[in-house]
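Have a close read of the entry that follows and walk me through the local backbone shapes. See right below:
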Amino acid sequence: MNTHVTISFSVRRLAACIGLALGGIFATTVASASASSLINDDFNDGTRTGWFNASSAGGLSASTGALVSTSGSPTIIVYFSSTILAVGESLSLSFDFSAAGIVSTDVGFRFGLVSSSGTSKVAVDNFGSFDFDAYEGYRVSTNLGSSAASKTAIYKGSGTTTSLFGGSEWAAQIGGSTAGVNLTSGTTYQVTFEIERTGETSVAMSFSMNDVVISSSVDNAASNFTFDTLGFYKGTGAATSLTFDNVSLVHSAIPEPANLTTLLGGLAVAATLLTRRPRGRSAV
């Protein structure tokens, strides 16, 4: 038997096996780092299950295949599975948005991601004198109109006894500011808001519309990394109605340590197999 042929065949077969094994291990590791959906609602079923207007008994519907708010000053709430961001992990919120009857109003539109901190949650529309005191997180505030004096900015804070996104508790502006977003009434825009934990006490945030970054900032004194609530607010007179569709919230996690260990273990097995590959027999 030809020694060269025997060794060449064995090495090729071994390499193929190792390639398949490592491919499976790599796929498992990458899957563990893939994004998980926390909210995914297009309202096509004509319902708004889990969505509440905490400040009014009416004016919120999904009968047209989108979530529409027509009340004067709504606080729209939806909850999701409590998520704690580790360093390197992020939340990415996106939704289609339009407003009718826009009037330039100082910080007339606000939305954000916060934690209910284990306290009570809104369970029905017009939840009465609900106490948002323990809710904390980050919000975007903007003027849907064009006033340069009414800024767009990202804030850190907590709720009050009457409002999720109002009051002096939200006075901590993170980073700089820009003018109002100057939307056209009836036109749909894609909005994104991303929060990434970049360090032990740091969080980076970015607010975009139609893939254009409007405001970005970094909180270097962050202390809350838990989120379970998405909220929207419109000030009285800022617009006659708001429409939301294709609301998505995605959590991007880092690989689990167990899967990294599996990957390293696979490499160790591969190395062992290489050292034990069959030896070719001498030709007779």
Confidence is low (pLDDT under 50) at residues 5-9, 14-18, 20-32, 280-284.
